[in-house]
Amino acid sequence: MLAKKTVYIVDDDSDDRMLLREALENVIQDIEVQEFVDGQLLLDALANNLPEQPALILMDMNMPRLTGLEALKRIKSDPLCRHIPVIIVSTSSNAELIRHCYDQGVNAYIVKPVVFQGYIEIAQSVSICFLDSYPEFEGQVVGKNFSNKTILVIEDNQDHWQMMRAALKTGMPDIKVIHRSSQDSTIDFLENEYAALNPPVEMILLDLYLPDRDQGLSLLAEIRNFIASRNLPPVPVIILSHSDHPRDISESYAGLASAYLVKTGKAFQSFSSIRDVCSLWWGTVTLPKTS
Fold first, then answer.
1. Last residue of a domain, one of 131, 160, 186
2. For residue 270, what are the contacts with CB-CB under 8 A and spacing of at least 6?
3. What is the value of pTM for the model shown?
4. Distance between CA 160 and CA 234 in Å, rounded?
5. How confident is the model at residue 164, as a pLDDT?
6. How far apart (Å, rounded) are the C-alpha atoms in residues 24 and 54?
7. Which tens digit of pLDDT belongs to each residue from 215-237?
8. Contacts of 133 (CB under 8 A, 6+ apart)
9. Can you tell me the distance from the alpha carbon of 169 to that of 147, in angstroms, rounded to the nearest whole number?
10. How confident is the model at residue 118, as a pLDDT?
């Protein structure tokens, strides 16, 4: 029996907490949801529950006592908590605010849906990207036109790269997929090709063991520094790995990985889930608009 994973919902609106809780519990098995009505209560719980910590925090922006942005800053500046993935779920679509959240290390920013199906899609994204759980989807997840998007795949295993490419192209035939197989070739790509790409890179899939974890974590840091130092639009960097070791997961999140996907032993399920992640991420997560 799988151990339950704990998710914190932080929101002063009881209806929004209820909708998000119901969606999570409908989609994800073996989940425990705890609710808080403001950021200060969240921080108190994190401090009091060490070393036990949630697998994920879903947090509103505008709350009394301590806002979501203020709580986010404290979490990501605390070495004991910065590895906990945080998703802001807010009614605000203000571009400056969204950019500020990404600058402060938020894993994803989601504008609150207006219908319950939108909360279901959030739960589906959360399930795969953050909780290593693969729910059965009703119908095909992929179905939108992604001809204006580019994905960078950094993977040193040629067989895995070919399966990933095939999975991504299934359901998203017009997407542009760029492959690099090493730290050096990725850095060369960043410095010489990245900024001029059209359409721009809107997701990076990075194998953690490239071939070892130190190289993967080092490259993650270099990618984050490259984007920040040039003031480029934030791009999700999703870590891929066969490892489900807590240390690998926590250090990836501490290094500002957007999400962490475990490659399963079932290749079809594993690489098909990557395609679903891309579709769900782009369908639910809001990034600052490119200029």
1. 131
2. 263, 264
3. 0.91
4. 26
5. 87
6. 15
7. 999 999 999 999 999 999 899 99
8. 5, 28, 29, 30, 127
9. 11
10. 92
**Number of CB atoms found within 10 A of residue 98's CB:** 22
Residue 83 has which token pair? 């590895």
Residue 289 lies in a domain: no
3-state secondary structure (DSSP) of residue 175: coil
Q: What pLDDT does 54 receive?
A: 95
Q: Which amino acid is present at 85?
A: P
Q: Which of 288, 287, 289, 280 is nearest to 119 (CA)?
A: 280
Round the average pLDDT of the chain to a whole number and report it.
89
**Average pLDDT of 57-83?**
94
Integer Cα distance of 73 and 137 in angstroms = 34
Residue with tokens 């179905």: 143
Neighbours of 58 (CB within 10 A): 26
Position 220 in a domain? yes
Structure token digits, residue 156: 């040193």
Distance of CA 2 to the CA centre of its chain: 22
Let me know if residue 138 belongs to a domain.
Answer: no
Q: What is the pLDDT of residues 174-190, one digit of tens each?
A: 889 999 999 999 999 99
Last residue of a domain, one of 97, 131, 165: 131
